Amino acid sequence: MTDVYLDEKYIGTIEHPKEFVKSFIEERRKQKLHATLNISYESEFDEVSIFTATGRVRRPLIIVENGKALLTEEHLKKLTSNDMRWQDLLEQGVIEYLDANEEENTLVALTEKDLTKEHTHMEIDAVTILGLITSLVPYANFGQSSRLNRGSKTQKQALGLYASNYLLRMDTDISILQYPQKPIVKTFMHDISKYDKHPSGQNVTIALLSYDGYNMQDALIVNEGSIQRGLARSFYFRPYNADELRYQGGLIDEIGVPDKEVKSYRSEEDYRFLEDDGIVFPEAKVHEDDVLIGKTSPPRFLGEMEEFSIAANTRRESSIAVKHGEHGVVDMVVLTENDEGNKLIQIRLRDLRIPEPGDKFASRYGQKGVIGRIVPQVDMPFTASGIVPDIIFSPHSIPSRMTISHLIEVIGGKVGALGGRQIDGTTFSAESEKDLRIELLQLGFRENGTERMYNGITGEEFKTNIFVGNMYYLKLKHMVANKMHARASGKIQLLTRQPIEGRSAGGGLRLGEMEKDCLVAHGASLLLKERFDSDKTILHICESCGMVAIFDWLKKRASCPKCGANAEVNSVEMSYAFKLLLDELKSLNIYPKINLKNKY
């Protein structure tokens, strides 16, 4: 007997599971059972599972019987003339919705020519195997699957116009591309998702060649002239806020320029941008540690008798200042109230980001890279017709990654730019490469997309044809300005006495095994002593028993808790983290004996 489960709850047994599932599906197609029911038979466990719960992803498929799809040309004509609706197809049993479990028992064909007697369903269109973002990638069927995944991921990280009311919003960590454009090579999903309303890239002229090794690996060479004309410029926004909190006993935060008597008062220089109300004025150019909102708070701890003492009146400084490593222009100041009715101040900082070496760019095919060098326009190679590329891309990035779609877009973009139209690059049903080549030839260019180019520095003609065309490029949110990090000695953790972590906290940079190898290879091995001394401590060890001794700093005298005051004690340098380990072992009643040897 086969067990039957309804929404993962056992409801009974049946004798012939395959016949039961078949009749169940037939009844559902006749509308005798609810359309949201899905059933599957798991032969490995001999279980039938029926699902009715919400939250399942279900997708429509065309039903196939005896190797023929039930959706006919007649249905399509009626649909286009509005004589038939989608709902009618469901009611007539032409299309049905399957969830992930029921799909396990089916054989789905991608196109009509793939159909065999074994097939049970067919895709409505081959492109439906892709998700929303992935279907925005043109000519995706000419690329490798792993690169396609990466390409859809990079589109999510691209800068663009995320919302048209961005000036009224206080979103965290946001970038807006200054001149976003709609792509020359698009897919049908660009129209459906209204991509023109919120584009996130720019059409650039791209050439595939090497340039003095500055575009090794995935690095890009960018034309300085293009940047000066506004290529890939963006604004970075970051909000800061402060509120006047109320504390027990009627105490309250005060927003205003702090008095000099206030505890932890900063220098007058830090408060120079504040107006009389203690808030920075709009369009002020602020830098790291400049105060945006002046604020004082009551003391943290109040004793019983402190109402008459001086200490009770000493307020502490708690102003909001620009974070470490950041700068910008005050874009907007908002004064309002929070839910509790307390005064709330919100400030948005704006920073213009002009592309610089290290900023990350990507095409829609997972071909991502950072700017390796920005070259003056006069030194850039140019074509016979005088076109100077915006980006020089390394040709070595193509063969191993097999992103043929990247190359097709260069030709498609060229045809679209010269013909003044958008090219349809929808996966599985795009304008063919052959047609693009013919059109490019008619427009007066070589059909393979190559051109003769000249060296911008020497003026000599390159001895080979260079592949050059137009492409939609994305600027990603990973910018050098947000990631640059360096520090000297600074804050340390209380427990381990090692530097704290994180750029925003002003933390240290961890040196790993491989970084250590680099220093040794450079012949700078003495630097390791300094690097690995971040938590250096001196411990006094008893020579006879190997225990940590006690050192009296006042009397300058050492004694061992086991061997007494006359024991021979030596000072040893070690990591504070190791000293912590010794303490842990002692707490477990383990005797960590340290054997001392002579240094020499």
User: How many structural domains in the coordinates?
Assistant: 5
Q: Given the C-alpha coordinates, what overall shape results?
A: extended
CATH fold label of the largest domain: Dna-directed Rna Polymerase Ii 140kd Polypeptide, Chain: B, Domain 6
Give, in spatial order, the strands making up the sheet with the most strands.
12-26-13-24-23-29
What Rg do the Cα atoms give? 35 Å
Strand coverage percent: 25-35%
Using the coordinates above, name the CATH class of the largest domain.
Mainly Beta
Helical region count?
A: 13
User: How would a textbook summarize the main sheet?
Assistant: 6 strands, mixed, barrel
Mean pLDDT: 92
Give an overview of the whole structure:
This protein has 600 residues and is an alpha+beta fold. The chain has five domains: 2-124, no CATH class; 140-233 and 358-475, DNA-directed RNA polymerase, subunit 2, domain 6 (Dna-directed Rna Polymerase Ii 140kd Polypeptide, Chain: B, Domain 6); 235-353, OB fold (Dihydrolipoamide Acetyltransferase, E2P), CATH 2.40.50; 485-527, no CATH class; 536-587, Alpha-Beta Complex (DCoH-like). The chain is built from 13 helices and 33 strands. A hairpin with a 2-residue loop joins strand 5 and strand 6. The model has no long low-confidence stretch (mean pLDDT 92).
